[in-house]
Design goal:
183 residues, alpha/beta, Double Stranded RNA Binding Domain, 6-stranded mixed β-sheet, two-stranded antiparallel ribbon, 4 helices
């Protein structure tokens, strides 16, 4: 099954909504190394090319936070993706003219007519990326970041890469949670 199409192909004009959650009993300062959790990543329903792009972006962001990739890691990194169709329906009044009786009472002057263009239907695909950080020894989830945004089926590879990097960066800005609590 391959329903998630390039889950991180977000348009640059749309914002990414990010939330995170974590185990409050964890001292995140003790984590220094990481590795990718192959079992979890293999389950992500996106193309192998986009998986590689996501993992490269995560590796870059983890490096920026002082983490070192290791064969004996403190943290395991996994990803999960999801998408869903959203539909918006709008109605717009139309017409311009002069009238005597308005909605709120009598008036005289320019105003909108009583007709409508009819409903306008807009649909788009909303995608989510979850980044899970798992304690390597206990195999327990200790932190999860989630980013949600509008999917764009961008055909330009360089734009796709930039969008993925931006998306991952925004999610991982929420890590480590103690740094956020200190602010």
């Amino acid at each position: 099954m391959f329903p998630v199409l390039a889950v991180l192909l977000f348009t640059s004009c749309n914002s990414v909504k990010v939330v995170s959650d974590y185990d409050q009993g964890i001292n995140f300062a003790t984590y220094k190394t990481f590795a990718f959790y192959k079992t979890g990543i293999d389950k992500a329903q996106i193309s192998d090319l986009d998986k590689k792009r996501i993992l490269r972006a995560i590796e870059y962001e983890m490096g920026n936070r002082g983490f070192v990739k290791s064969k004996d890691p403190d943290l395991l990194v996994s990803i999960f993706t999801r998408e869903r169709e959203q539909v918006d329906v709008y109605s717009y009044p139309y017409g311009w003219g002069w009238g005597y009786w308005g909605y709120w009472g009598p008036y005289w002057g320019p105003g909108w007519g009583a007709g409508y263009w009819g409903p306008t239907v807009s649909s788009y695909t909303e995608g989510s990326l979850y980044i899970d950080l798992i304690d390597a020894k206990s195999r327990q989830l200790v932190w999860q970041g989630k980013g949600v945004g509008t999917l764009n089926k961008n055909k330009k590879v360089d734009k796709k890469v930039q969008q993925i990097q931006k998306f991952v960066s925004e999610i991982l800005q929420q890590y480590p949670p103690q740094a956020l609590a200190a602010n």
